[in-house]
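Re: the request from the purification team.
They wanted to know what the chain is likely to look like in 3D before they choose a buffer screen. I agreed to run a prediction and write the result into the notebook, where they can find it.
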Amino acid sequence: MSALDEIRAERLKKLSILKERGIDPYPAVSYRTHMVADVVADFGALSEAGTSVTIAGRVLVKRGQGSILFVDILDGTGKFQVVLKSDVLDADTFSLFKDVVDSGDFIEATGTLFVTEKGQQSILVSGWRMLSKSLLPLPDKYHGLQNEEERFRKRYLDILMSEELREMFARKGRFWDVTRTFLKENGFLEVETPTLEVTTGGAEARPFATHHNDFDIDVYLRISVGELWQKRLLAAGFDKTFEIGRTFRNEGTSPNHLQEFTNMEFYWGYANYEKGMALVEELYRTIAREVYGKTQFTRGEYTFDFADTWARIDYAEEIERQTGIDPRTSDEAKIQEKLRELGVAYEGTTKERLMDTLWKYCRKQIAGPAFVINHPKLVSPLAKEVGEAGDATQRFQPIIAGTEVGNGYSELNNPIEQRERFEAQQELLARGDEEAMMADWEFVEMLEHGMPPACGFGFGERLFAILEDKPLRETQLFPLMRPKND
């Protein structure tokens, strides 16, 4: 029998003791009167009045022996100490607690507030109840879960044992709250659009496919937060919309890429990419100040400050400056030769994919904050042109710490040109480019009915990960794991 099995067997005995005493070890209700945060905030008044309080939470630590026990209890708002004394509780109540309560159990403790001789604010317990008897122990207090596989698989324990992680996920909630509030205060309507789509649109990525049994059709999990749907809403008369939701991309995992993540996208009628860039600057500064109380951050070797003037970087000119290759005039063979020379691995041999790989090499040299602009039409099938004859588009991407943290356009609303660009993407798909954009001919039909000029923009939780200076996977509550092999 393993040490863990022995612990579980011992705790099952304690569970039996509770049941033999007629005590439900898993009652349906708690009679909690105060959260820990409330007790801390009102400690002076509550203790002076001699008010009886009841808190509830998980036992983190149980220490002491003989006639006095000290117990740390954690609820969703904080940690607090409760003290049990044999001369305050009757002998049976005290000894039962001593015999059956372990770290990891959820309990309820009632009593009055006092300060210990060591100056610790505490509750002097006059009664307690078991709320949930744990059968397996908590990780070691000081070391937690060390193996990354185990940390992600038992994320509930990882978070429980790390106040730093709990604070990070509270900031993540605040991150999206600030984003939502900012957009609403700027007149945007929050909407919900389909997650299952017949054709994926709004990005270049390999989708997850599934089957709709009732309709007997193949469908895809969306790869953007309703880009083509929100544009339909522009045609429907909604001038400002946004959505925050989950997106799915059947691609590789890296510090900046996952297969499932949260994105935000907004669409702003009668605005162009210049107005979009101004709004995004203001949004990112607002997030930095309201979530973190600062605008300057460090990630690895990069330092950046959202309060700085944001540079404008031309896509093709920057590639040529760094590599000597002009992506507008170079063919596939020349770009491949340069990538090999730079030691950059690449997949796919279409010019679009090769150009994108070369750009990703170059952007790593940019600390930001900056906007990369003037992307070629080939890599921007949904953006308006810059001028009438040029190859560049009215697209913008914020860059910080060598990483793209958003994507926006002056949205293409010319149905004839949109059809031509979709046809070009179809050719890429036919040549084996699994990340090329699917054509949505019903969307083209909508454009023929008319859509106003607009700016669209989106960003995801990659921005949050960069601000936290952590890999994207670390900032997800429950990252996807392979099934465990027992």
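For the purification team: The chain has 15 helices and 19 strands.
Please add any questions underneath this entry.
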